[in-house]
Amino acid sequence: MKFSGIVLSAFLAILQVKLCSAQTSADALPACGLLCIEEMTLKSTCDLTNTTCICTNAQLNQAITECVATNCTIRESLSTFLALSHPAAHILIITAAATEKYSKDACGAKPRDRTRAVSGVGVTFCALGLIVFGLRVVSKLNTPGSTLGVDDMVMGFVAVELVLFGGLSVALSKNGLGLDMWNVSFGKIETFLYLFFWDELIYLSALPLTKISILLFYLRIFPRRSFKYSVYALIAANILYLISFEVVSIWQCRPIKGAWKRWDGEFKCTCNNINLQGWLSAVFNIVLDIAMLSLPMPELYKLSMSTKKKVHIMLMFGVGFFVVIISILRLKALIQFASTMNVTQDYVDLGIWSTIEVPVGVICASMPSIRPLLRNIFPKLFSTTKNDSAGMQNNSSVFSNRQKPKLVSSKPNNSDDRSFIPLVELEFSDNTGKV
Q: By three-state DSSP, how is residue 28 classified?
């Protein structure tokens, strides 16, 4: 017993020296963590004084981690956390400080830091989305006969959300998103989860609003009554999605603040199955995306157009399907979202894909509207006919065909001309002139 006590004291002294050299200011390890290190090391092939063996023994690392998870609180676990940081099985021995975690670990493994990726991707893509939306407005205001419609107003609201989205990306990175959770102070963990709560609400509203804007745009270019009914049905579905998931997400925990306070297990609250909620919102969003993008295809299929026109249309709708691909890739990140014990690190991929998805949706929705502006700037690339190098401003064009052309955006009788805008001048494939 005396010898064991001497060895343990020597081990703890060495350990404390290691820890003190790895940080400028550290408190002592929690007692439960020290006991786990002692007990599991004595049961292993490592000597208590051999920190190299302790740092590289994967089986011992796992045993200590399980012991800490069983016998320590979450806060104590983060303060004593030992985690495998890479395939070489180096472990991180982390201590708590008053306001911040350690800067270097006792075993020499470098802490992961993806905070720049989080803020960089967020600011870049949100800026691109805002630029394209600005071009959309400029194009509408500078195209004779074109006016800002309800679809533009809805997209304007999404643009405001983009500003908030980009700002939250920076704020989240400054509060630990991109770092391992045990390298983030307890106060910042709670702030991170609070910001993530609002980030989630903005994301869940921006997606259906973007689709509603696109569907309102469909109403301005496709006049057939039966088609309009389908558009109205999808608009209703997106409104239902918006209300349902906003309400469910706001009250994901009761009381509401449990969403950002329950992480340490000390705040009493009742919460939904957050993982199931995330999967349902993602799957329904993908279904609505596919339905929205597929809806106008039969209308376009009935029209004959030049190869250049087809390429332009395919590019516009191709960007839309890229949003679907992003949504599917985001599903992979939801797997980690379900069972993570390292939220500030494992939420990175989920956050990045979400930040990309919203601005790309805005870009997709704005492409048809900025086409007239691009046609004026690049007339040869975006002209609709061989004789049209300056671009069409109204619903007229020069055709050599014998049949009088009609536009996909031609209005039905007794409707307001100002509510319809040309997507691209197309010829009908049949002789009836009916869509």
A: coil
